[in-house]
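hey
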């Protein structure tokens, strides 16, 4: 039986992995797939891919593209969630800052450099016409680090997925001053090159299983109640999130899509160079 390790954020986007693992769908195909939570997000997963601690990552599009350009020996095999990710822009509930415009010279908490919280802070700055070179960052590790840094005043604002952080807005830990959606599909599947070279068929099997699950995932009975309970959300918030979230139907990331995303990232100053889009992706079905 082949051992494979997959990593992702412990958020509602990845519940289909829990279902398929619980049903032992990979084991039935001779694959011992093990899931690892990465509360630190994309930067943490990129590091784990580089070190071989995981084989597959469900990772933010902008983060893995930047890291592959910078030498991560992995490829994007497909989109996982094709809708944008809505990043909430949060300040401490007691903060003096009231609007996004107020944050131009403030310090932004990020999980780590190269993470989504880092790159989307740059996108938000670009959207608002700020000088990106003057952005100030405070590395905090994960969402708990974000809570601590805003509460302690070590940083002024923190960007994280809107619905994951909504309970912190509801309980008065954070105040949301706005949102910043990604201008591209939000999550992709990245696989280490070594695994693609040696175990291509098994990777294809894993993706066939997860794509079959996500295809009808939103039709799951009482899904809003299940997700609300598991991720400590309100059912009405989960319903809203489901209404704007679309998983991939198994189609690969094309060179054209990868090029368009790179062009946008260059425009946002998120990356400073492009590479051949064929070096970012590996289509498993040709």
């Amino acid at each position: 039986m082949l051992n494979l390790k997959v990593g992702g954020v412990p958020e509602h986007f990845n519940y289909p992995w829990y279902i398929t693992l619980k049903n032992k769908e990979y084991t039935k195909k001779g694959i011992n797939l093990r899931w690892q939570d990465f509360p630190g997000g994309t930067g943490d997963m990129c590091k784990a891919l580089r070190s071989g601690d995981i084989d597959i990552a469900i990772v933010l599009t902008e983060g893995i593209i930047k890291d592959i350009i910078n030498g991560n020996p992995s490829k994007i095999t497909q989109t996982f969630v094709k809708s944008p990710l809505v990043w909430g822009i949060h300040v401490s509930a007691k903060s003096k800052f009231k609007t996004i415009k107020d944050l131009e010279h403030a310090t932004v908490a990020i999980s780590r450099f190269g993470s989504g919280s880092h790159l989307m802070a740059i996108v938000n700055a670009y959207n608002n016409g700020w000088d990106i070179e003057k952005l100030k960052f405070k590395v905090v590790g994960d969402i708990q680090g974000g809570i601590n840094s805003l509460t302690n005043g070590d940083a002024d604002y923190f960007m994280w997925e809107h619905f994951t952080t909504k309970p912190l807005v509801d309980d008065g830990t954070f105040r949301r001053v706005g949102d910043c959606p990604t201008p591209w599909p939000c999550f992709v599947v990245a696989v280490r090159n070594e695994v693609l070279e040696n175990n291509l068929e098994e990777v294809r099997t894993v993706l066939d299983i997860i794509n079959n699950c996500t295809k009808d995932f939103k039709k799951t009975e009482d899904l809003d109640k299940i997700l609300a309970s598991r991720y400590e959300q309100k059912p009405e918030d989960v319903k809203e999130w489901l209404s704007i979230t679309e998983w991939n139907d198994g189609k690969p990331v094309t060179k054209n899509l990868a090029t368009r995303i790179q062009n946008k990232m260059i425009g946002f100053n998120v990356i400073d160079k492009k590479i051949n889009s064929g070096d970012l992706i590996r289509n498993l079905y040709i």
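The two ends are 26 Å apart (CA to CA). The longest helix spans residues 200-215.
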